[in-house]
Amino acid sequence: PMATTEGCLVASASRGCKAINSGGGAITVLTADGMTRGPCVAFETLECAGAAKLWLDSEAGQDMMKKAFNSTSRFARLQFMKTALAGTNLYIRFKTTTGDAMGMN
């Protein structure tokens, strides 16, 4: 079942299902459940970017981000967060579960 108000999404998914069924069907295996997003935060200085990375990677930073993230949705839950520094740019990778929600928004 698919619940959405986006008619084009339903039509597209229906065409895909029809194509798969016409080809004999498909066998799938779920190896992981989650969705990732990777925003980039630009800082004025390397010192500020490094300090932000250290805080986000700390236990206190991880706990605070998890609490803040989980408070924004009845469904989404932050599984983990990973950071990478490239000069003054801090890349933050969030991996979440979205429960019954699609989670793209």
From TrEMBL:
Keywords: Oxidoreductase. One of its GO terms (molecular function) is hydroxymethylglutaryl-CoA reductase (NADPH) activity. The gene is hmgr. It comes from the Eukaryota. Its EC number is 1.1.1.88. It is an enzyme of class 1 (oxidoreductase). Belongs to the HMG-CoA reductase family. One of its GO terms (cellular component) is endoplasmic reticulum membrane. One of its GO terms (biological process) is coenzyme A metabolic process. This is 3-hydroxy-3-methylglutharyl-coenzyme A reductase. PANTHER family: 3-HYDROXY-3-METHYLGLUTARYL-COENZYME A REDUCTASE (PTHR10572). It comes from Phaffia rhodozyma.
